[in-house]
Design a protein that fits this description.
Helix 19 packs antiparallel against helix 20 and helix 21 packs antiparallel against helix 30. By secondary structure, the chain is of the alpha+beta class. The strands form 4 sheets. Strands 1, 2, 3, 4, 9, 10 and 11 form a 7-stranded mixed β-sheet that branches. Helices cover 54% and strands 16% of the residues. The longest helix is centred in the middle third of the chain and has 54 residues.
Length: 851
Amino acid sequence: MALLVGATVVGVALAPRALARLGDRELRHALEKTSATQLDLAGVGQPGAKAYAQGLEGPYAHAALVIGNIRQALPQPLQSLVGDPHWLVRTPAQSVTVTRGQDLNLHVRLGIDLSWKDLVRPVQGELPDTYDGRGPIGIAVPRALAERADLRVGDRLPSDPGKLRVTAIVDVVDPDGGYAAHTGDLVRPTVTVSPGFPSTVTGTVLVAPDSARALEPLLASGTLTGWLPVDGSRVSYTEADALVPEARRLASNPVELPEGGRLALRTGLADIVEQTSDRIESTYALFALAFSGLAGVLGAVFALGVQTVVARRRPALALASARGAGEVQVRGVMVLEGLLITLPVSAVAIRAVTSLVPAAVGPVGRLLPWAVAALVPVLFGVLTTTRALREPRQDLQVRTRSRVRWVLEVGVAGLAVLSLLALDRRGVVESSRAVGIDPLVVAAPILLVTAVCAAALRVYPWPLAVLQRSLRSRRGPVAVLGAARAVRQPALGFAAALALVVGLAVVTFSAVMASTIRSGLEHAAREAVGADVRLSASAFDEGDLDAVRRLAGVDEAVRLSVRSGVELDLGRTAHVDVVVTDTAALHTVRPDLPALTGEYPTPILLGTDREERADSVLFESRPAHLVDVVARELLPGLDHRWVLVDESALPPGAARGDSRRQEVLIRVAPGADAADVADRAAGVAGRSGVDVEVVDVEGERAAAESSPLVGGLQPALLVAALAALLLTLVTVVLASLAAARARQQLLGVLRILGMSPRQLRGVTAWELGPIAVVAVAVGTAVGLALPRVVTRALDLRPFVGGRTSPTPVVEPALVLAGVGAFVVVVVVAGLLAVAVGRRVAPAVTVKMGER
């Protein structure tokens, strides 16, 4: 018993710590994969009218002091996540005349960074000297800008306010990517390409900081870009509730800089933390519902274990009671024994877990293992009664006329109904946000299983009685005797039967939820990509598309041109995104999207979040036919309402809009590797020099599965299933031990009467056979029903992604494997009971009978 309690306490103490660590890892994972542009505390403001302050040396010295104190002014825990500030001042972009006839328009911004000597490493030439207002302005040009604009050391570039002279080509030292994320064209120039016109190249060049005195008017009209990097590796999930309001408060409290300067910092930290918290809370809720069934099995196992100990102490307790010990004294002795069994081993277990697995678990996580340990002494006190001392064995019988049991069963059924109503109306995550952990909601699975099990055990004797009557005409005593004993004196009571049903329900529930999560991740990845593979770029020509279609492993490919700002009139004019494509080819790649046929009026498909219908539709002031209205998320990457139109039906000159991008959706042939096709397609489509972004379903799913939550859920469900099977084994063994005395008496008499060992094994098998059949039927049915109950109350979209919450997916092979493992466990436990029966000698039974 002590070993069972110790193992249970270890598991209960580990669970909240494992969940706390899992929450920390998931939040850190989400922040680490977030770009610095979205995560860091960053903003663009005004540097102020004057670069120099009285009493301070150097340009922007006063501003440097104010910006340097921003971090110290932040509240905890946000302050602990934020690094030292970085900032630079830049002039507005000025047009520069190139000297070697390059076919481009060059715009540069002069930038001042007080730590510029640490920021850049000269490749050619020397860093410029201070500009004093006379002669050309010396500039250090980043290598990427120099290569793109063909600039060289010594070049003189006419500009306003003065001629620029390239004194150095430099590499920008940017180990953490902060400058690339926040200053943009300092690290890599911005290139704008317009068909039929020269490219426009915009970049930032650096000047000596002391040049600020001569360039002060120009710098005052420019911008100050500042940021404080956020280190997501130091965040803890317990700090999430405090981080969100602190991060949101930044935008409403801009930093006032000297001489009228201002810097408003913003960060996407709050949004990331909130989204990740939804995922973590959904996972915690799923764990709570999955493991609440194990709590019921544990209660039944503890009750059976306590009954076994009480049965061993029965002679001594009966003697004490006969000599005048009251019921309170007898119960007190057994409670004391329960404390001696549980407290030492529980204290050692909790101490070991706390030392080896430190984590912030809160008061509930700290008290839960002690509550489990205290359950055993309580059961000792409850199950030790004067009636238990008089009876040869104690168990909750399947058939009983006790009014107490009727009251308990009706009460459990009522609680199950209330729990399901609360689960359906409030949900698990929403109720936990409002009132913390709601025991009534979390206990819904175990209450439902208990109510169903009680009803099944009420009906259970009736078919057995019918079977017994039908077996009377058969030869051989085994079947008749086994059925009669199963009806009149079942070896396994209600507690054991409940443990069997709950155990199989947990196994089945875990199998269905595992397949549901896996299917949901697959579906969400396909929704995010829009096909098996998606290529995105500023433009693809017909040669790119033909090259992709000729690749091995490509079933079909279609090009989509996305244009914005096109007029659509559904009773009121609005500007929408338009997707122009060959809809017949798109239908081949995406069978859920229709092929739009006909030319007049122009057939269109509308993607929107609202219910929209119109009798008269105008598309670019031309009549159009609205074929259907679908969900906006059906095509990925579109944030607003969109219209799908076939390129052959598009009138000449219509839907010009602003060309945003083009995409190629690829359907991969059966058996082909989507990742390999994606790599080869990006290679052939990017030969024209355009930057091609490529995503595929396998990559998206792998990215989702890299999440600690996703990676931890599958093992957790497996652990729940294995724990349920192990507890089922312990339950059957303990129940068999509790019934050992009655079995020994019966088997001893039957051996004297001449039954063979094979017949005795058959009689013993009848102890487990009928109740195991009931457990398989009821446990499997309840296990299949529970995922539907859970998915109605728990939205899995924060966890798996996608636009629709996944519905339960049943994989018959997986469910049958779980049922098969359960049957094997019951059979093994039955063999252990048979082994116990073999130890009984007929002489012992005869001697006991004579007494």
